[in-house]
Amino acid sequence: MNEFDAIDLRLLDALQADASLSNQDLATRVAVSPATCLRRVKRLVEAGVVERRVAILSADKLGAGLSAILEITLDRQGAEHLDAFEARAVQEAAVQQCWRVSPGPDFVLVVQLADMPAYQALTQRLLTQDANVRNIKAFFSVKRAKFDTRVALPSPSA
Asked: pLDDT for 116-157, tens place per residue?
């Protein structure tokens, strides 16, 4: 599914803004019938365009006020070593995002933790006990200027 018409794009835009809308409210917002809305959203979900619908929580209000971006460089970069580290990283609840990148470090992790002791515990579990981790570079957030989960949408197909 590579081509989207104006209705698909309005639906995707509305869902990115508020995935909790009822089908009726979504249909009204996009100016289509509820049946059309339901059929199109189902098609977008089945095609994998809509991966999932989630609630975005306030980390600060839940006691997870320390955000960090970690650059991880491994000693050995064979596929089995990269896969092994990635498997361990994605199992950590504090790891919100895990990116395998190139060039530069092997991985970039976005982590959300309660505080510096929680960060220290994570680094002990995930990084310093792994003999294959050569280098860790951590960047700690002092201010979040922007946070958005929206994907820029293409222009509608003719």
From this structure: 999 999 999 999 888 899 999 999 999 999 999 999 999 886
Distance (Å, whole) CA 37 – CA 40: 5
| pTM (2 d.p.) | 0.86
Strand order in the sheet with 95-100: 95-100, 107-113, 66-74, 133-140
Q: Domain range for residue 100?
A: 60-140
Residue 145 domain-assigned? no
**Is residue 147 in some structural domain?**
no
Beta bridge partners of 4: none
For residues 67 and 130, state if they share a domain: yes
Find the CATH number of the domain harbouring 84. 3.30.70.920
